[in-house]
């Protein structure tokens, strides 16, 4: 049986590119986790007069916080079919859906399922950065 250190992986997507995606995904995740407490600090009690003085600047906050997500979305959208399939396969290996020894099957399945919504799929994964990192580690890249 071949260990991950004995196996050479021929990736179309560069490991450094994946590491950039990991950094951006973790930054997105950290921003969400830092802002998400129990929501109580953002609740406003409406008592006859309080609603008149309440100003909501949520749109400006959301706009600035989503820059990293938008950058990552654009980077993923710029990948070619092979790179996108490998990125998805890395997530699946990192998540435990496939073993490193099943790398080629994971890539084949990702390519088969591939569509123009890869970024939406990946950005919807709560642990994207962690799973990409674990996937890279598993295949020894």
Care to describe what's here?
The protein is mostly helical. It has one domain. Helix content is 62%, strand content 0%. The protein is built from eight helices and no strands. It has helices at 15-35, 50-53, 58-65, 67-77, 81-95, 103-113, 118-123, 128-139. α1 (15-35) packs antiparallel against α4 and α5 (81-95) packs across α6.
N- to C-terminal separation? 18 Å
Roughly what fraction of the amino acids lie in strands?
A: under 5%
The number of helical runs is 8
Mean pLDDT over the full residue set? 78
Quick one: how many beta strands? 0
Structural class: mainly alpha
Instruction: Tell the overall outline.
Output: globular
Low-confidence stretches: 1-8, 33-47, 50-64
Taken in chain order, the helices and strands follow as HHHHHHHH
Domains counted in the coordinates: how many? 1
**Rg, nearest Å:** 20 Å
Helix content: 55-70%
Please describe the biggest sheet, giving its number of strands, its sense, and whether it closes into a barrel.
Answer: none
């Amino acid at each position: 049986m071949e260990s991950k250190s004995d196996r050479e992986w021929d990736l179309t997507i560069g490991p450094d590119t994946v590491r950039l995606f990991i950094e951006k995904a973790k930054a997105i995740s950290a921003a969400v986790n830092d802002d998400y407490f129990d929501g109580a600090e953002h609740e406003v009690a409406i008592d006859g007069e309080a609603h008149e003085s309440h100003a909501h600047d949520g749109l400006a906050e959301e706009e600035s916080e989503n820059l990293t997500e938008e950058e990552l979305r654009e980077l993923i959208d710029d990948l070619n079919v092979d790179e996108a399939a490998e990125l998805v396969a890395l997530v699946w290996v990192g998540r435990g859906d496939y073993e490193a020894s099943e790398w080629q099957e994971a890539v084949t399945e990702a390519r088969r399922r591939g569509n123009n919504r890869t970024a939406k799929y990946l950005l919807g994964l709560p642990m994207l950065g962690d799973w990409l990192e674990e996937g890279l580690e598993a295949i020894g890249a």
